[in-house]
């Protein structure tokens, strides 16, 4: 066998599936069309709370091409799921506007849409409540916050320390509901074969979809196969199965034919999750040198009536800065709204907006440079757990970012720099995201011709995971990437955790490394001889991850922004964004930079544009399409760049890497808001930063 000592991890490499994507050969979920295919279109509820009294299915099934009209009165029965969002068509209750109450199946998509629009539904509507407010009488303390963090934490006597502090900040901040909008909406093609179910599905984890749907349909997991080799983005909206995949499987079971279902862009604002709106209070107490003596961070957020999802909004505050007295809390209210879910950096993105805005306010109050203030409060160990950091290079990111950005020349006075009609300002904020691994499995196989195949049910949602795993495998197999094929996106492959929480490459990569190491050891024992049938080994990382030493494992970063604000209209433009990150060993600089600046662009969008507007009387989000839900476009991103500091952390995983999918968005909105204050002297504490908030 030919071997090579070249190190591919850490080198720039083009995506291995790039040609397939740009030539249209890559097949996404909706592009699978088995024989005898039918089309399903869900019917959304038109009230925010109540009961479905009747549905005139008899009239609809008489329409041309209609195969079936399914509702709770005739739908196949499902087992009771842990997440009631997945109990599709199992009850007459309506928990929120847009919830699926019926499914029309027809020979063509056009016929299914026409019939769904003409389906007559009568409701017994009830008064609804969709308003998040701090004083809501049903606000409560959840048992834990996502995924399993303590709801509240407290050390010392923060109230007394805050009262005694010579410099204080006490402010309320808010972030709106935001909706995930990946390029490819959720879509599923469901095919039953007896008691076997195959799903061509757009998701962030084929194993998770299989394991969730199996008990729902009363099947052993091996009877379900989920296939999703190419996924057009997710941002968290596809991290867990949503009602659409259940609806497709249910409809296919009912009609006895393959069924294709695609969620429309408008429906995505109801049934695929979103970032909960938050109301946050941050209180900081410090001495006159800016050293924190007290930190208190409270978060108020919402969930639905049918399933609890409590976002971990204040958790980054628990480890970000040193202070002997500290408290973090979360409170939740269940409203007549869709269930929130994961959206890029859930918790960290809104939580760090509040914390980093408050830190900027503290820097102003103490008359200390905002970069220096953060450096002064950098802790030596995790302030709450006491655990040592596996590595922590926030200070390096701040200092190197400040150097590259030209921060040293900054005049701290707000509202005094102009370029014509534009007010100019700069701002900074810190970034962080936890680093985890979850047990996964992988196989590595050598063929007689010297090529290799690695298989793992990982998911590439556009981040370059397939390419990174190819590089990791090539290094361990001591060969070149062109001799390695990585198979992913199929639940028939060894089980893997979802692509989310910046845990994908760390979790999958560990399993791939161990499987490849086993294979190379076996080849060495055989003196490199490969049997005619090939040679395969496998790995399961459960034991390794369960036995790992305890550290506080986090990635860190610093975001710098320069903005221009029109003095007359309040129009805000971001002139420059620079992010510096400490994220362990970078597997592929090309895909890494793409992830960093992609997150930063999404953070810019969070700062200036993204906002789902709830109509209290209507009981739904009004701006549920791209015409009204605004996101950053190329013209809004004028100069965005990212760099990383070298970091050697041996306590993470065999690659020494930290996840980078989410950290880019964290802190960006605060950096922009802080720059807007520096430009105008107006402190914006409620996102997004609209014109009316700046014009006085």
Automatic annotation (TrEMBL):
Xref: InterPro entries: Ald_Oxase/Xan_DH_a/b, Ald_Oxase/Xan_DH_a/b_sf, Ald_Oxase/xanthine_DH-like, AldOxase/xan_DH_MoCoBD1, AldOxase/xan_DH_MoCoBD2, AldOxase/xan_DH_Mopterin-bd_sf
GO MF annotation list: xanthine dehydrogenase activity
Species per Swiss-Prot/TrEMBL record: Streptosporangium lutulentum
Listed SMART domains: Ald_Xan_dh_C
Keyword Transit peptide: no
PANTHER family, sorted: ALDEHYDE OXIDASE 1-RELATED, XANTHINE DEHYDROGENASE
Pfam (any one): MoCoBD_1
Identification of the protein by name: Xanthine dehydrogenase YagR molybdenum-binding subunit
């Amino acid at each position: 066998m030919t071997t090579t000592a070249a190190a591919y991890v850490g080198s720039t490499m083009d995506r291995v599936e790039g040609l397939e994507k740009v030539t249209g050969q890559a097949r996404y979920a909706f592009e699978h069309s088995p024989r005898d295919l039918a089309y399903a279109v869900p019917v959304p509820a038109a009230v925010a709370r109540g009961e479905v009294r009747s549905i005139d299915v008899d009239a609809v099934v008489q329409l041309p091409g209609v195969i079936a009209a399914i509702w709770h009165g005739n739908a196949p029965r499902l087992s009771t799921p842990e997440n009631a969002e997945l109990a599709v068509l199992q009850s007459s209750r309506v928990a929120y506007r847009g919830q699926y109450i019926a499914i029309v199946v027809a020979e063509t998509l056009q016929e299914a849409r026409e019939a769904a629009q003409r389906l007559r539904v009568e409701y017994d509507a009830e008064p609804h409540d969709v308003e998040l407010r701090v004083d809501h009488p049903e606000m409560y303390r959840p048992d834990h916050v996502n995924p399993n963090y303590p709801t509240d934490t407290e050390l010392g006597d923060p109230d007394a320390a805050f009262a005694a502090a010579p410099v204080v900040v006490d402010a309320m901040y808010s972030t709106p509901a935001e909706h995930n909008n990946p390029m490819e909406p959720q879509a599923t093609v469901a095919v039953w074969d007896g008691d076997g179910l195959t799903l061509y599905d757009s998701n962030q984890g084929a194993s998770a979809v299989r394991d969730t749907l199996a008990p729902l349909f009363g099947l052993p997991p091996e009877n379900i196969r989920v296939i999703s080799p190419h996924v057009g983005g997710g941002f968290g909206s596809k991290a867990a199965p949503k009602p659409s995949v259940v609806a497709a499987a249910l409809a296919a079971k009912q009609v006895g034919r393959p069924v294709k279902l695609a969620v429309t862009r408008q429906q995505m604002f109801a049934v695929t999750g979103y970032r909960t709106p938050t109301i946050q209070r941050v209180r900081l107490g410090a001495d006159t040198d800016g050293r924190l003596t007290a930190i208190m961070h409270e978060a108020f957020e919402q969930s639905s009536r049918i399933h609890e999802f409590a976002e971990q909004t204040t958790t980054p505050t628990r480890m970000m800065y040193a202070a002997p007295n500290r408290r973090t809390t979360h409170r939740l209210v269940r409203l007549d709204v869709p269930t929130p879910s994961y959206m890029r950096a859930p918790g960290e993105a809104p939580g760090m907006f509040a914390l980093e805005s408050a830190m900027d306010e503290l820097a102003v109050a103490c008359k200390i440079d905002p970069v220096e203030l953060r450096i002064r409060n950098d802790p030596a160990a995790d302030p709450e757990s006491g655990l040592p950091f596996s590595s922590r290079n926030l200070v390096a990111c701040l200092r190197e970012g400040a150097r590259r950005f030209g921060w040293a020349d900054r005049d701290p006075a707000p509202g005094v720099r102009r370029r014509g009609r534009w007010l100019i300002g700069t701002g900074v904020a810190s970034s962080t995201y936890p680093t985890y691994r979850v047990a996964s499995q992988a196989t590595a196989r050598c063929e007689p011709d010297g090529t290799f195949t690695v298989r793992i049910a990982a998911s590439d949602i556009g981040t370059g995971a397939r390419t990174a795993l190819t590089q990791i495998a090539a290094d361990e197999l001591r060969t070149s990437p062109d001799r390695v094929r990585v198979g992913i996106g199929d639940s028939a492959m060894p089980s893997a955790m979802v692509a989310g929480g910046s845990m994908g490459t760390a979790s999958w990569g560990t399993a791939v490394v161990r499987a490849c190491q086993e294979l190379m050891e076996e080849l060495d024992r055989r003196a490199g001889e490969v049997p005619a049938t090939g040679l395969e080994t496998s790995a399961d990382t459960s034991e390794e991850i369960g036995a790992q030493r305890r550290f506080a494992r986090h990635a860190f970063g610093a975001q710098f922004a320069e903005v221009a604000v029109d003095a007359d209209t309040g129009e805000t433009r971001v002139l420059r964004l620079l992010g510096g990150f400490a994220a362990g060993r970078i597997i592929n600089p090309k895909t890494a930079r793409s992830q960093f600046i992609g997150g930063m662009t999404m953070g810019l969008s969070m700062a200036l544009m993204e906002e789902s507007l709830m109509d209290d009387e209507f009981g739904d989000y009004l701006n549920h399409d791209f015409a009204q839900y605004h996101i950053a476009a190329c013209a809004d991103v004028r100069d965005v760049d990212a760099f990383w500091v070298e970091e050697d952390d041996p306590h993470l995983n065999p690659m020494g890497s930290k996840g980078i999918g989410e950290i880019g968005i964290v802190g960006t909105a605060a950096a922009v808001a802080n720059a807007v204050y520096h430009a105008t002297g107006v402190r914006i504490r409620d996102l997004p930063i609209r014109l009316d908030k700046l014009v006085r």
